[in-house]
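Justification of computing resources. Each target in the renewal requires a structure prediction run like the one illustrated here; the chain below, 221 residues long, is used simply to show the kind of job we budget for.
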Amino acid sequence: AGTIQFTATTSGGTWSGNGVVNASQGTFDPATAGTGVSQILYTVDNNGCQDTSSEFVDVLPAPNAQIASQTALCDNDGPLNLSATPAGGSWSGTGITDASLGTFDPSIAGSGTAQVAYTATAGQCSDTDTLDITINPAPDAVFSVTSPLCVTDNPVVLNPNTAGGSFSGNGVSGTSFDPAQAGAGIIDVVHTVSANGCTAVDTQSVTVNDIPVDAGKITLN
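Resulting structure tokens:
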């Protein structure tokens, strides 16, 4: 808390006591006084006669809110619970989905810098700490592939939205898919891309149909 101003019914007096930082204006600084009870005196001098009144001020210990550091996240990361002391405070800020647990969802906050705040309360006193969290954009791993195919079809090209990733799966070679090598069935082809310290994965299912065992016999009537 900042400084506060004392007032008196009679003006022109002088303030004194532990924590008084301006004797004429009656400015009191709790940080200067420190925790505990301080006696504040107000003295008025009129024609050589003095009168003094006093009050006692109890300065309570304020909590010290501190948020634990957090490494950079990716906007495709799942929610996580942030950590702070002392326990029992309240969280706020972009991406906070649970004010009590401090649950932070990077996908809601979005890429960039998100600032979160933690407020701890003890009696009438409170303290707030803030933290900037860096959220890096995950790359686009989405790709397209022809489906369905026949086992006799030629290899087809896998077309990613973002170049530089890697494909995996039965029948995959580089950036192509060979249905003959994969064989008949439903084949999962996976594209993995890493950038900005983030990894994204997209999976597409390719249906490969077998050819008929016997096409039958043609007869002329």
